[in-house]
Amino acid sequence: MINRVEKLSLLSEMIAFARLDESLKSIEYKFLLGVAEQLEISKEDFDYLIEHPVNYVHLKSYSERIVQFHRLVLLMNLGSEIKPKDLVRLHNFGLRMGLSHESINRVLDLMESFPNKIVPADFLIDIFKLQYN
């Protein structure tokens, strides 16, 4: 299980990702608040993070990094239109987390074939497992 500092870092990273266009839409806020609740982070701490981001902390667990990448994919798909710069940013987030370049590309390429462009968690995990072994 990840510690509080890692949890705050994950949320801060997701907030930064959502604010690519300088605003945080209501649907993005609600999604991120739901992630905060899953991570057992209070609404007050979450709201504080919006204005006061914390430094990035690299997750040690490969599986936690995959889960975080999946959250970012879900977050990106909340918007109405995915722009090429969003895909590049997601790709770079994945690389920074230490995920496989090939796996990230495969997820992004296959995203188009799923309803609402949302890759199911088990499918995404299989892609990363294949590259990890």
UniProtKB/TrEMBL annotation:
<dbReference type="InterPro" id="IPR029024">
    <property type="entry name" value="TerB-like"/>
</dbReference>
<protein>
    <submittedName>
        <fullName>TerB family tellurite resistance protein</fullName>
    </submittedName>
</protein>
